[in-house]
Amino acid sequence: MLEHLADRDGAQTVTDMEAGLEHLKRGTLEHTDTLLIVVEPYFKSLEAAGRVAELARHLGVPAVYAVANKVQSARDEAAIRDFCAAKDLPVVAVVPFDGDVAEAERQGRAPLDRTPEAPAVVALRELAAKLLASAGSPRADRVAD
């Protein structure tokens, strides 16, 4: 299906994959131009992100970035940024921990619909705008600028 979507002229496709390496080993990145790795400020998440980034580069993904998620403090952000810098993995966005996201989940609603001004929703909207602005750019590092 991803191959078919990749063949559409000028179309952008965003796919949300489950955490881990299994889907990467199945060739799902073959038609991927940009991979966003969601990283949380926990050891297991950081280590998994490092492995995913390494495998994505090995598979030839042109642009690999981290999205810091559930960031509650400057210390959380620094831990993610330091780890990612050591892995040559640019952090393209920081999404704060947001109780409105959890409440929307409990209500079975999208956070965007429940509280469009919530900090996490605003951060994701900014990331989406950044990705759309860089779509089609010949520079693979454009998103991180």
CATH fold descriptor = Rossmann fold
Sheet of most strands = 3 strands, parallel
What is the CA-based Rg, rounded? 16 Å
Estimated helix fraction: 40-55%
What is the straight-line distance between the termini?
Answer: 31 Å
Strand content: 5-15%
Overall spatial form: globular
According to DSSP, the number of beta strands is: 3
Which series of helices and strands comes N to C?
A: HHEHEHEHHH
Q: Please give the count of helices.
A: 7
Summing up helix and strand content along with how strands pair, one would put the structural category as: alpha/beta
In order across it, which strands form the biggest sheet? Answer: 1-2-3
Which CATH architecture would you pick? 3-Layer(aba) Sandwich
List the helices and strands and how they pair.
Elements: H1 2-6, H2 22-25, E1 34-39, H3 43-58, E2 63-71, H4 74-86, E3 91-96, H5 99-107, H6 111-114, H7 119-134
Parallel strand pairs: 1-2, 2-3
Q: How would you describe the overall organization of this protein?
A:
The chain has 145 residues and is an alpha/beta fold. The protein has one domain (2-139): Rossmann fold, CATH 3.40.50.300. Helices cover 46% and strands 14% of the residues. The protein contains seven helices and three strands, in the order ααβαβαβααα. The chain has helices at residues 2-6, 22-25, 43-58, 74-86, 99-107, 111-114, 119-134; strands at 34-39, 63-71, 91-96. Strands 1-2-3 form a three-stranded parallel β-sheet, sandwiched between helices. It is globular. The model has no long low-confidence stretch (mean pLDDT 84).
